[in-house]
Amino acid sequence: MSSEFPSQSQSQNANARIWVIVPAAGIGRRFGGLVPKQYLTLNGKSVLEHTLDQLLRVPQIECIWLPVSDSDSVWPTIAPRYQNRVISVAGGAERADSVLNAMRAISGEARDDDWVLVHDVARPCIRLQDIEKLISSVANSDVGGLLAVPVADTLKMAENDGRVKSTIPRENLWRAYTPQMFRFGLLWRGMQEALNGEISVTDEASALELLGYKPLLVEGHSDNIKITHPQDLALAELFLDRIRQAEL
């Protein structure tokens, strides 16, 4: 894989491939329970299956790379359904480690000007139109971007004792969602720099920001929620039903 940054001419290369990574090695510490949240049942199938199925509806997506835990005993029972379309790789201790492991696995084939699209496994309510909007919005970008939603709530900064310290103006503030989609070479450099500097990055955009880049914010739908707490499951079911009706 070349170590050079992509040029403007490369960024407009219509033959650039999209490599899709869905980190799924987490155990859902905040969710609690014995079953990782990606395997909980949602409208008749697992959260993970909802997420994979929606991504695989996108014409530009041929295959998904799925980092999973070595101790995962559930994925092997689901894997046959996705033969040749979902490839599992070893997951890592943190999300960034899983993404890097998947990128290492595809680095022999990927070019610097190819795309890496990363999506949270716990966001099953992603709309097909939002994925396609992201892909088309960053198509001519040298860097890439992410789905996001403008902050609508009033934000408060807290003191250590839980009291309000100040109100934060919400203008120009966005909630970062996924998918996030970036040039392979740049994401590789950003993730490696974070790893070498022992800097924690909670999303891929943060890795690009470390390099001094400014990813594009692409507005998506607010129902693209991340299942984090038990009560999120019921909300996700409602959203999935609504999205299914909208896409009919």
- Name of the level-1 CATH class: Alpha Beta
Low-confidence stretches: 1-12
Number of strands: 11
Element-by-element helix/strand order? HEEEHEHEHEHEEEEHHEH
The largest beta-sheet arranges its strands as: 5-4-1-6-10-7-11
Quote the average pLDDT. Answer: 91
CATH architectural name: Alpha-Beta Complex
Shape: globular
* Residue share in β-strands: 15-25%
Alpha-carbon Rg, integer:
18 Å
Q: Provide the CATH superfamily.
A: Spore Coat Polysaccharide Biosynthesis Protein SpsA, Chain A
* Coarse structural class: alpha/beta
Query: What is the first-to-last residue Cα distance?
Result: 42 Å
How many domains is the backbone divided into?
A: 1
Query: What's the number of helices?
Result: 8
* Oligomeric assembly: single chain
Percentage of residues assigned to helices: 25-40%
Largest sheet: 7 strands, mixed
- CATH fold-level name: Spore Coat Polysaccharide Biosynthesis Protein SpsA, Chain A
